[in-house]
Design a protein that fits this description.
seven-stranded mixed β-sheet, mainly beta
Length: 116
């Protein structure tokens, strides 16, 4: 079955940077909007950033001016550049996407840990 696959997570010190990638594991006819979510232990999943098929982006206030979302339409790939990382950014980061037929796709997540 088709699923999104995130990569690029890992351990980084506070103030460091990390770049996440998200791509489908199978064929998706057409991806419209994509988004990044995160979930910390004991907390609900929250929206981090979104990007439309035309490249219009939006961010949660907690990450604005630190994170940048982008996409490569030819590769159906989304990216999340994370700068000035803080310990509170520690979470499993998930990618999702909406296609032209109303389907919603999710990845299994990639762990980001910000710690000294």
């Amino acid at each position: 079955q088709v699923q999104l696959v995130e990569s690029g997570g890992g351990l980084v010190q506070p103030g460091g940077s990390l770049r996440l990638s998200c791509a489908p594991s199978g064929s998706i006819y057409s991806i419209y909007d994509m988004g990044w979510y995160r979930q910390a232990p004991g907390k609900q999943r929250e929206l981090v950033a979104t990007i439309t098929r035309d490249g219009i982006s939006n961010y949660a206030d907690s990450v604005k001016d630190r994170f940048t979302v982008s996409r490569d339409k030819a590769k159906n790939t989304a990216y999340l550049q994370m700068n000035s990382l803080k310990p509170e950014d520690t979470a499993v980061y998930y990618c999702n996407a909406h296609d032209g037929f109303g389907a919603v796709y999710w990845g299994q997540g990639t762990q980001v840990t910000v710690s000294s």
